[in-house]
């Protein structure tokens, strides 16, 4: 059996990641494919609850400590994600290690230090980067109460994302309509799903 594909959607706040993840999962299900949604941070675990407390300002944590918790929150999902991919289930993932590096580096931590804890995580088969200028993102509603919902930080995060962007990313212009983005993401995902047989092994983050 071909293993499932790891489909990642990354990007700045309000670029439309969560909207597109849900639409992609629904569209793949409608085509009778096995697919599940993952979201990072996963706030349901014990580590996730600590992250949630930090993001909602009810807990203070050192910048490095919270960075490591975000990474640990990915590591604790790894075995289950591998099992699902091996069983032929496609995973649509809302944020992952790139968000981890982009936010912590934007706060002032060293880029290489930020990348290190995520080394060895399974690598996405396809990464969509939903690109939206901060000024456009702001028009999609006011900032909420969470810790990182501040204009200057968001601008720095976008700059780091653009530095991290490599030729393997599929950049989606997030100024487009929800449907136009959806059809683009669905088309690329279907190509990736059909694209040859996988040998069942996982590439890892380096
Ligand atoms: P993210 O998960 O990237 O923060 P969301 O999917 O939650 O973004 O979308 C943020 C807001 O922007 C929501 O109100 C959503 O309805 C709206 N939105 C999403 N995609 C678009 C789009 N392509 N054009 C206009 N508004 C959008
Ligand atoms: N975030 C998310 C990080 O700082 N590091 C990470 O590793 C991840 C996965 O947490 F501000 C930030 C990004 C965002 C917040 O918001 C989570 P959502 O709305 O749950 O995606
Ligand atoms: Mg979201």
UniProtKB/TrEMBL annotation:
Pathway(s): Pyrimidine metabolism; dTTP biosynthesis
A Gene Ontology BP annotation from the UniProt entry: dTDP biosynthetic process
Keywords (A to Z) from UniProt: ATP-binding, Kinase, Nucleotide biosynthesis, Nucleotide-binding, Transferase
Domain Thymidylate kinase-like, first and last residues per copy: 9-185
Enzyme Commission number(s) of this protein: 2.7.4.9
A Pfam family annotated for this UniProt entry: Thymidylate_kin
Taxonomic superkingdom: Eukaryota
Cellular component GO terms, alphabetical: cytosol; mitochondrion; nucleus
CDD domains with a match to the protein in the record: TMPK
Matching InterPro entries: P-loop_NTPase, Thymidylate_kin-like_dom, Thymidylate_kin_CS, Thymidylate_kinase
Gene Ontology molecular function: ATP binding; dTMP kinase activity; nucleoside diphosphate kinase activity
Class of the enzyme per the UniProt entry, highest EC level: transferase
Signal sequence annotation: none
Family: Belongs to the thymidylate kinase family.
The name this protein goes by in its record: Thymidylate kinase
């Amino acid at each position: 059996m071909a293993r499932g594909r790891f489909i990642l959607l990354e990007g700045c706040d309000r670029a439309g990641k969560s909207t597109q993840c849900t639409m992609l999962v629904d569209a793949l299900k409608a085509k009778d494919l096995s697919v599940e949604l993952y979201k990072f941070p996963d706030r349901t675990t014990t580590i996730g609850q600590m992250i949630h407390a930090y993001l909602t300002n009810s807990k203070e944590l050192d910048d490095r400590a919270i960075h490591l918790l975000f990474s640990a929150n990915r590591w604790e999902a790894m075995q289950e994600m591998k099992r699902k991919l091996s069983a032929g289930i496609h995973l649509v993932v809302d944020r992952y290690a790139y968000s981890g590096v982009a936010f912590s580096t934007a706060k002032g931590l060293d880029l290489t230090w930020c990348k290190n804890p995520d080394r060895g995580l399974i690598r996405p088969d396809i990464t969509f980067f939903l690109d939206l200028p901060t000024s456009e993102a702001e028009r999609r509603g006011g900032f909420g109460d969470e810790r990182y919902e501040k204009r200057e930080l968001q601008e720095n995060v976008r700059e780091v994302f653009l530095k991290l962007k490599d030729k393997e990313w599929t950049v989606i212009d997030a100024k487009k309509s929800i449907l136009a983005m959806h059809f683009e993401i669905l088309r690329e995902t279907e190509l990736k799903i059909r694209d040859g047989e996988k040998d069942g092994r996982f590439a890892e983050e380096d």
